[in-house]
Amino acid sequence: MTVANALFTEQEVIKETNSALEDIQETLALSLVDSLKAGDHITTPTVINMLKDLEDMQLKYYDARILKIRTALFLGHNPR
Question: What's this model's pTM, rounded to 2 decimal places?
Answer without folding.
Answer: 0.47
